[in-house]
């Protein structure tokens, strides 16, 4: 399976709060966030890891160029207006089978992720989306599901019975890339609107619950992520 990381943002909020490193190089348990993802993907038998970064990320590019000596990285350097457009740019590298896409700043339990990937390898769903009932996001995207955890809709505010939000980790197939192409052609933007289009087009999207997923957008999120990972490490 191929994996992909969207790391094309500027990390402006972290910088405004005093962060000195680019967001993907922010250290968690002494390791850059992007390295943590790459190593995890390799443990999940990644054939190729596609990474998109923006054209201003000189330090990050140098870091990834060094890692490419040891890992099967496909680096794409292009500044885009949104995560959905970043996804579109790298989508040609992901066709031909199942793949997993994540943003660089999603922090989750590694064991849960491994089970998630194993589950997607055998499911008949077009997509398996990581969701969580841990809600600590500035603009959460709520996920409505049926009794079998099939996704019925994505909502900006919670409907009655909604307990999950989207976690920013997506396992998908080629049919989902066809929907992405249509969204781009129609001038749509934002990943949440793409997710809605998947449901509109009748794709079978399943929700996969994680205990906790943390988005690192602020300095305080780094502290929360460290505490979460340290607790998980201590239990092993």
Q: Summarize the main sheet.
A: 9 strands, mixed
Q: Any idea what the CATH architecture is? A: Alpha-Beta Complex
- The SSE order reads EHEEHEHEHEEHEEEEHHEEH
- Label the overall shape: globular
- Estimate the strand proportion: 25-35%
Q: Helix/strand/pairing class, anyone? A: alpha/beta
CATH superfamily: Spore Coat Polysaccharide Biosynthesis Protein SpsA, Chain A
Share of residues in helices: 25-40%
Number of helices: 8
The average pLDDT value, as a whole number, equals 93
Might you state the CATH topology name? Spore Coat Polysaccharide Biosynthesis Protein SpsA, Chain A
Notes on the protein architecture:
With about 240 residues, the protein is α/β, with parallel strands linked by helices. The protein has a single domain, classed as Spore Coat Polysaccharide Biosynthesis Protein SpsA, Chain A. Helix content is about 35%, strand content about 25%. The protein is built from 8 helices and 13 strands. It has helices at about 10-15, 35-45, 60-65, 85-90, 110-120, 175-185, 190-200, 220-235; strands at about 1-5, 25-30, 30, 50-55, 75, 100-105, 105, 125-130, 140-145, 150-155, 165-170, 205-210, 215. The strands form 3 sheets. Strands 1, 4, 5, 6, 8, 9, 10, 11 and 12 form a 9-stranded mixed sheet that branches. Strands 2-3 form a two-stranded antiparallel ribbon. Strands 7-13 form a two-stranded antiparallel sheet. Strand 9 (about 140-145) and strand 10 form a beta hairpin. Helix 6 (about 175-185) crosses helix 7 (about 190-200). The longest helix has 17 residues, at about 220-235. It is globular. The mean pLDDT is about 95.
């Amino acid at each position: 399976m191929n994996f992909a990381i969207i790391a094309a943002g500027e990390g402006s909020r972290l910088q405004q709060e005093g962060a000195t490193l680019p967001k993907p190089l922010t250290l968690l348990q002494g390791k850059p966030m992007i390295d943590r993802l790459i190593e995890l993907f390799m443990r999940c038998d990644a054939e190729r890891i596609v990474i998109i970064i923006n054209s201003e990320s000189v330090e990050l590019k140098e870091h990834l160029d060094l890692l490419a000596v040891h890992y099967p990285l496909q680096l794409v350097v292009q500044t885009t207006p949104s995560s959905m457009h970043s996804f579109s740019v790298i989508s040609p590298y992901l066709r031909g089978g199942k793949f997993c896409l994540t943003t660089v700043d999603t922090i989750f339990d590694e064991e849960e992720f491994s089970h998630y990937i194993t589950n997607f390898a055998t499911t008949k769903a077009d997509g398996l989306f990581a969701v969580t009932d841990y809600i600590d996001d500035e603009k959460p995207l709520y996920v409505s599901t049926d009794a079998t955890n099939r996704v019925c809709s994505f909502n900006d505010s919670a409907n009655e019975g909604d307990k999950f939000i989207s976690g920013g980790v997506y396992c998908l197939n080629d049919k989902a890339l066809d929907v992405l192409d249509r969204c781009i052609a129609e001038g749509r933007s934002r990943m949440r609107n793409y997710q809605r289009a998947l449901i509109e087009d009748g794709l079978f999207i399943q929700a996969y619950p994680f205990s906790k997923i943390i988005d690192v957008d602020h300095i305080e999120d780094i502290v929360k992520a460290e505490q979460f990972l340290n607790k998980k490490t201590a239990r092993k």
